[in-house]
Amino acid sequence: MAEYTIKVRRFQPESGEGPYWEEFNVDLDPSLSVLDGLLQAKDRDDGSLSVRCSCRAAICGSCGMKINGQSGLGCKTQIGEAQEQADKTASAVGNDSSSIPIVIEPMGNMPVIKDLITDMESTHWTKIRRVTPWLLPHGEPPEREYIVESESMIDITQSMACIQCGACVSSCLSMEADPDFIGPAALAKAYRFVGDPRDAESKERLHDLAHDPHGIYDCTHCFSCIDACPKGVAPMDQIMRLRRKAGEEGIEDPNSGHDHEIAFVKIIEKKGTLDESLLLQESFAPGIKGKLKPNKRAIREMLGSIPTAIRGIKTGKMRSLPKLIPGIHHKLPGDAQDDVKAIYKHAEEHSEEFNLYIKGEEGELVDEDVEKGIERSTDPDTAEAK
Ligand code: SF4
Ligand code: SF4
Ligand code: FES
Q1: 309 Cβ below 6 A of ligand 3
Q2: What's the 61 CA to ligand 2 centre distance in angstroms?
Q3: Distance CA 383, CA 362 (A)
Q4: Alpha helix (H) ranges present in 95-234?
Q5: Could you give the 3-state DSSP secondary structure of residue 202?
Q6: Ligand 2 centroid to residue 158 C-alpha, Å
């Protein structure tokens, strides 16, 4: 047994007061869950403490919450681990106090009904219904079940593992900026049907999701939903699969999201890191591997993007004017560019799906760098991708 302090963000609408923080001391084995801690506090200290739960075994998806700022399930997070995380975060900011509380909040991107209970209907379930979450087969249904090759279902088993807990929605940075974004859970659900061999309307679904300005190209590829998901659904990967399939179907989206994505891939292949000066040009008038091919739409889009570029310079995203001039982007050290090309070649030859993960923090040296004597730049553009 060990003693823990949990600091809960509370909201009791009937009181007429705004949200407030309250601390509870609980006494639990470290292997028990944060949800167990909350239930103990409710039992011993305050019966009005409200939390949604049912299975207590990471199956029903009811107990989504934020623990130390990270979205997940209360019943799947061991209280001992949550304490270690709280201590680690506090010591990283120079707070070495011996009584760091575990901070528990309701999920983000959703209205709070009471304490840790959020309104899943307005954000989560409405978006799930948006993607027509049922099979749309062709013709009359068979007398008995549809027979499909089991191999043809492997691709969608990952998205089928979703328990609709909303943790990914809670952590989604795009949804924070654009509440109308269809979001990670609903788009993972969409892939479950787009990838199903029995569905006859996959192309229509892709067209719909690519043309919706809040659809598949509204995801900023931030990986938060992958970190949050307790069931390994990796919603962002499902969104990338939807994008890939939309590209294979030749679906041109009005925001040039597909062309923009291809531009990223080509620039990294050629330069190793993102040369922002080429991004606009490559997205609308590809030329990195040949002559520029501007067309009316490209010129219109590039002119329309000038305010965005100016905002980028002002906010520091595009750091300086010289960085916007194509051709003066820095090169990767040593033969690192050959390594990047080898990764591309391997992925193409093996039809492999790969995502880039940024390892470490900006400016931080990782062990391998130290061994290789590589000096890491403080420029995020040069952060190493694995
Ligand atoms: S990867 Fe995309 S869907 Fe997932 S949290 Fe980030 S923006 Fe949202
Ligand atoms: S994708 Fe994962 S995090 Fe999102 S609702 Fe489904 S199980 Fe929860
Ligand atoms: S109580 Fe069912 S998932 Fe946590």
Answers
A1: no
A2: 8
A3: 7
A4: 120, 126-130, 151-160, 167-171, 173-177, 184-194, 202-211, 224-228
A5: helix
A6: 11
Pick the closest to residue 234 from 181, 191, 178, 203 (CA basis).
191
Residue 235, ligand 2, Cβ within 6 A: yes
**Other Cβ atoms closer than 10 A to 67:** 24
pLDDT tens per residue, range 292-338: 566 676 677 777 777 877 887 777 766 666 666 666 777 788 888 88
User: DSSP states of 43-92 as a string?
Assistant: HHT-TT-----S-SSSSS---EEEETTEEEETTTSBHHHHHHHHHHHHHH
Residue type, 169: V
Ligand nearest to the CA of 33: 3
Q: Residue 20 corresponds to which tokens in the numbers above?
A: 């407030």
DSSP-assigned states of every residue in 238-275: HHHHHHHHHHHTTPPPTT-HHHHHHHHHHHHHHHSS--
Distance (angstroms) between ligand 3 centre and the Cα of 69 equals 19
**Total-model pTM:** 0.81
180 phi, psi to nearest 5 deg: -85, -5
pLDDT single digits (tens) 87-112: 998 888 887 777 799 999 999 999 99
Report whether residue 224 contacts ligand 1, using a CB cutoff of 6 Å. yes
Tell me the β-bridge partners of 297.
none
